[in-house]
Design brief:
With about 775 residues, the protein is of the alpha/beta class. Helix content is about 30%, strand content about 20%. It has a seven-stranded mixed barrel. It has a six-stranded mixed beta sheet with strand order 6-5-2-3-4-21, sandwiched between helices. A five-stranded parallel beta sheet has the order 16-15-14-17-18, with helices on one face. Bound molecules: iron/sulfur cluster. Iron/sulfur cluster binds near residues 422 and 425.
């Protein structure tokens, strides 16, 4: 199930008819994004003209990709579904847990020891359920996906925000939470708000020091970090067709920095060439066969403003390199203005560390162009003046660039090659710095540069640029350097200028690799044992949640009445808790510790109604759980906004909270609660929020007649003996009411497969 050419054949054979039907329904030509979306509607979805930014629509994605940090809970949940195998081709990639310290070999060895139990779990669960497993050191999820799995016209979800990287090969690829990945692997449809569309027309051709990265740095400057929210960004025009597939991938990758749902390029010869070079001639041939369906209709190019909600145009002949940052990826400065900006803003000019590579920029093209700068510099009597690191995105790239001598070139100037993993990009970096409080500057060819992202230091000013510019600045030792115009003094005191970078889109001798680091799943996984140590603090097999008992929920104690903002981060905090993301009971010790208690304005301090004493939210809830007393959480507006985090819905369920009653929900969290078998209710009259008092006991009534569109009632018993009834609304449909009754959505699937509880699979 790791790669399925039959699935691509089927999709391509059905696509033309689906696209033509959608064209008829809309009564107009289609953009590429629309073609792919309509081709992936889930079967229970009727064909209609969906309103952009309004309708929630069910899709059937072709693939799932998961990185090791987020895969843990997604797969623990998937095990609950009781399926013998995943419903769609899926892969796991061990890239986020490797810390960069000394260099590739030692760092990988350390990670294998430190994360052994997580890797063993992921390897065995993948083996059992038909999931392709990419071992630690094999590469970064998005680069490995681009090299092996992305294909034009496909749809993929991935448990990582830079999943849209696969748009470089014309795929709609969207970053999601683990619960969504679990659903799709279990065979459930996946819901997305029908996106808005932004068109970006690229004309002309880049030259010299400019590269694909500069296009997205420019776009980020134009649209800002929020400008792409809820939208698919579609690139087109002769300038787009001139870019390498990996360059397109870089641009789509960083679409996450403008908040875009995903970004997308149209199928062209560059994509075909990349597919062929990565042993997928068959996919290229199939794509060539339906080429016109993998590009927008011609009328869209003639009048793009009629078909996109917003259109930007960029002439690549005029584009110059950009440096974005510090602290945000949308502060875009053209390199010709950088010196002035550094002085004006008082940014530390001395460059301490320059880092190239990552999932964003470690293609053969990126590396060969950067190596050409290093070689040119050495030939002219120059050396690096900053620390310099190189992170290959995959073993395929690393092996090939080593064979072709580029690693030697980097090492000849003191460059350190790090493991094929995320490392400094995600803060997995044991940086050596004399004074962590000293204001200092680094520059990367990665994507994100928010404060503390790379090294955990608030004092670090992190900039983002192309690998070529980062390499040139490593040699200059300053971020005020403009390689197009500035000279550097060499070892003999001469002023020299760096030559423009030169490289290859694809390796002239082809890609090569010895061991790519892939473990194919077992043909028959039924006998495979999933490796989870019962005393592990990081991993815990899940128990299925109990079915609804068939009665109204009576005598629930109020756990907390949360005041004001209560995001998924308030409900389930990140930071140090993330190491427990595969252990539901341990991570539940952060339940609602960030929420403000309405009655005392404090965080993590609620009244235990059994003792009258105040204690932390999770500890108090555990007392109720031990006494077999159900509880309710009351909240304010937009409860559960923020990143889709399944733990925020699973923790209250695990600890015995029965219902969440709020003024309003963030939609994704509301759905997550429903999937876990929780009652997610809203006050019919928002002012009734005021009626809930600290010592209240609450009944939820009307559950025997639980039906779509029919409100429920809540009887509130106050400690003074008085009671009052309030009306509460819900948005459950028939299917979701079944989830509630079964105890969770996955319980329904498990019944379908008639599977035993998963603990029998534990070691
Ligand atoms: S390299 Fe960075 S952006 Fe890419 S997957 Fe890893 S952490 Fe995310």
């Amino acid at each position: 199930m790791a790669f399925d050419i039959g699935m691509i054949k089927k999709l391509y054979s059905e696509m033309p008819a689906k696209i033509s039907a959608a064209r008829k329904v809309l009564g107009r030509p289609l953009t590429l994004a629309e073609k792919i979306l309509y081709a992936h509607l889930s079967s229970e979805q009727g064909l209609e003209a969906f309103e952009r930014g309004k309708n929630y629509v069910n899709f059937a994605p072709d693939r799932v990709a998961m990185q090791d940090a987020t895969a843990q809970m997604a797969l623990l949940q998937f095990m609950q579904a009781g399926r013998p195998k995943v419903a769609v081709p899926s892969t796991v990639h061990c890239d986020h847990l490797i810390q960069a310290k000394t260099g590739a070999k030692e760092d990988l060895e350390t990670a294998l020891k430190v994360n052994k139990e997580v890797y063993d779990f992921l390897a065995s669960v993948s083996d059992k359920y038909g999931i392709g497993f990419w071992k630690p050191g094999a590469g970064i999820i998005h680069q490995v996906v681009l090299e092996n799995y992305a294909f034009p016209g496909g749809m993929m979800i991935g448990t990582d925000s830079h999943t849209p990287n696969a748009g470089g090969l014309g795929m709609i690829a969207i970053g999601v939470g683990g619960a969504d990945a679990c659903d799709v692997m279990a065979g459930l449809p996946w819901e997305l708000k029908w996106p808005k569309l932004i068109g970006i027309k690229l004309t002309g051709k880049m030259s010299g020091w400019t590269s694909a990265k500069d296009i997205i740095l420019w776009v980020a400057g134009q649209l800002t970090v929020k400008g792409g929210t809820g939208a698919i960004v579609e690139y087109f025009g002769d300038g787009a067709d001139g870019l390498s597939a990996t360059g397109k991938g870089t641009i789509c990758n960083m679409g996450a920095e403008i908040g875009a749902t995903c970004s997308l390029f149209t199928y062209d010869d560059k994509m075909a060439a990349y597919l062929k070079s990565t042993t997928r001639e068959d996919v290229a041939e199939l794509a060539n066969g339906i080429r016109e369906h993998l590009r927008p209709d011609p009328e869209v190019y003639e009048a793009p403003e009629k078909y996109y909600d917003q259109v930007l145009e960029l002439n690549l002949n005029e584009l110059e390199p950009y440096v974005n940052g510090p602290f945000t990826p949308d502060l875009a400065t053209p390199i010709s203005k950088m010196k002035e900006a550094v002085e004006k803003n008082g940014w530390p000019e001395k460059l301490e560390v320059a880092l190239i590579g990552s999932c964003t920029n470690s293609s053969y093209e990126d590396i060969s162009r950067s190596a050409s700068i290093v070689k040119d510099a050495v030939g002219k009597g120059l050396k690096t003046n900053s620390e310099f690191t190189i992170t290959p995105g995959s073993e395929l790239v690393r092996f090939t660039i080593e064979r072709d001598g580029f690693i030697n070139d980097f090492e000849s100037v003191g460059g350190v090659v790090l493991a094929n993993a995320c490392g400094p990009c995600i803060g997995q970096w044991a940086r050596h710095i004399d004074d962590p409080n000293r204001k200092n500057t680094i520059i990367t060819s990665f994507n994100r540069n928010f404060a503390k992202r790379n090294d955990g230091l608030a004092s670090t000013h992190a900039f983002v640029a192309s690998p070529e510019v980062v390499t040139a600045m490593a040699i200059a030792g300053t971020i005020a350097f403009n390689p197009i115009t500035d000279t550097l003094k060499n070892s003999t005191g001469e002023d020299v200028i760096l030559s423009e970078p030169k490289g290859y889109e694809l390796p002239p001798k082809g890609f090569a690799v010895d061991d790519p680091g892939f473990q194919a799943p077992a043909e028959d996984g039924s006998q495979v044992q999933v490796a989870v140590d019962p005393i592990s603090s990081r991993l815990q097999l899940l128990e299925p949640f109990a079915e609804w008992e068939g009665t109204d929920l009576k005598s629930l104690k109020l756990l907390i009445k949360a005041k004001g903002k209560c995001t998924t981060d308030h409900i389930s905090m990140a930071g140090p808790w993330l190491k427990y993301r595969g252990h539901l009971d341990n991570i539940s010790n952060n339940l609602l510790i960030g929420a403000i208690n309405y009655f005392n304005n404090q965080t993590d301090s609620v009244k235990n109604q059994l003792t009258g004493e105040y204690g932390s939210v999770p500890a108090t809830q555990r007392v109720y759980k031990a006494a077999d007393i159900g509880t309710i959480v009351v909240g304010d507006e937009n409860y559960g906004e923020g990143s889709s985090r399944e733990h925020a819905a699973m923790e209250p369920r695990h600890l015995g909270v029965r219902a969440i009653l709020v003024k309003s929900f963030a939609r994704i969290h509301e759905t997550n609660l429903k999937k876990q078998g929780m009652l997610a209710l809203t006050f019919a009259e928002k002012d009734d929020y005021e009626k809930i008092l600290e010592d209240d006991t609450i009944d939820i009534l009307g559950l025997k007649g639980f039906a779509p569109g029919i409100p429920l009632h809540v009887m509130v018993h106050h400690s003074n003996g008085e009671s009052e009834t309030i009306e509460v609304n819900h948005t459950y449909n028939e299917q979701q009411i079944e989830w509630f009754k079964a105890g969770a959505a996955l319980n329904i699937i498990r019944k379908k497969f008639n599977a035993p509880a998963q603990e029998s699979a534990a070691l």
